[in-house]
Amino acid sequence: MAKTCIGIDLGGTFVKFGLVGEDRRPAGEVFSLPTPAKANPDDVVAVMARGVEQTIEKYSLRREDILGVGIGAPGPLSVKRGILLQLPNMQTMRNFPLRDRVAEAIGLPATLENDANAAAYAEYLCGAGEGAHDLVMFTLGTGVGGGIVLEGKVLHGANEMGGEVGHIIVQPGGRPCPCGQNGCLEQYGSAMNLARYATKRIRREKPASRLTDLLEKTGAIDAKAIHDACRADDAFAGELWDEMAYYLAVGCVSICRLFDPDRIVFAGGMTKAGEDLLGPVRRHFQQQNWTMLETHTTLAIAALGADAGAIGAAGIAWDAFDSKPAR
Ligand SMILES: [Zn+2]
């Protein structure tokens, strides 16, 4: 078999494994092993080593054909030092040198990258950003994560804190964010915050809406309920949905002024709404964008789903251990 890199994506529930060939495309199916219950560092390293061995067996790889292993993990972390600084819900992993420990355990060189950056890189290589020169990804889930790929490289910044697209300010003096700023995009564009602020408004204003009835009946509403109500022509839900789309579009316009990417990709749970999400964002994007010149940035939904992290991590390893650029 030709040369390959193996990608590992450390999640709260599963550790995923993927294989990427020299063409920077998946060379096999992504599979997963359960993340050790208490995330004991030694157990996590052992699971990663086991998954790599299983990949080698499954595809009858020769060790000398594996250039290296790329690991994607939740941040904050240091790519340069290969260290996890802290993991939410994984206190035992604080300041843990994951990259070198895994490299040692499997006897292959390794890289460490933020999982959101790895996913953005995968979309750039072989997903919704294929063929793009530059790509910016927004992952809309509990929070808003993402990554920036400029001229084939993931942007990190001087202190490795770059690319935090969820914390660009879209409303000065707006909703407080746990990061300490006010008016971050995350407070307006994440599934959790959409539902949270909708609940607040319903309790305060009691609008005539099926969401008000639902909240009274079940005690909670989520982003999916808002989307469903929106589809049923509920005016209040439509207003909430449109407001979210507006702020996402404002974020996209600022990103365009800074980086002029040809592709902006949305990933995460919210993108299950598909064109119902993308359509209004595109409309506001056009309305808020400058008129001085035409903007050629296209907005798209991510293509690789939950496999993106493992594929992107392997792509990062290719970049680190092979001298030829991806494209
Ligand atoms: Zn913030």
Sequence-ordered SSE layout with sheet pairings:
Blueprint: E1 4-10, E2 14-21, E3 31-34, H1 41-58, E4 66-73, E5 77-78, E6 83-84, H2 98-106, E7 110-114, H3 115-126, E8 135-140, E9 144-150, E10 153-154, H4 186-189, H5 191-205, H6 210-218, H7 223-231, H8 235-259, E11 263-267, H9 275-288, E12 298-301, H10 308-321
Parallel strand pairs: 1-4, 4-7, 8-11, 11-12
Antiparallel strand pairs: 1-2, 2-3, 5-6, 8-9, 9-10
Helix pairs in contact: 1-2, 3-10, 7-8, 8-9
The structure holds zinc ion.
Give the key terms.
Nucleotidyltransferase, domain 5, 5-stranded mixed sheet, 327 residues, 10 helices, 2 domains, globular, binds zinc ion, alpha/beta, 39% helix
Model description:
The structure is a single chain. The chain is an alpha/beta fold and 327 residues long. It folds into 2 domains: 4-123 and 306-321, Nucleotidyltransferase, domain 5; 131-303, ATPase, nucleotide binding domain (Nucleotidyltransferase, domain 5, 2-Layer Sandwich), CATH 3.30.420. 39% of the residues lie in helices and 18% in strands. It contains 10 helices and 12 strands. It has helices spanning 41-58, 98-106, 115-126, 186-189, 191-205, 210-218, 223-231, 235-259, 275-288, 308-321, and strands spanning 4-10, 14-21, 31-34, 66-73, 77-78, 83-84, 110-114, 135-140, 144-150, 153-154, 263-267, 298-301. The strands form 3 sheets. A 5-stranded mixed β-sheet has the order 3-2-1-4-7. The two termini are 22 Å apart. 46% of the residues are buried. The mean pLDDT is 95. Residues 167, 177, 179, 181, 184, 186 line the site of zinc ion (ZN).
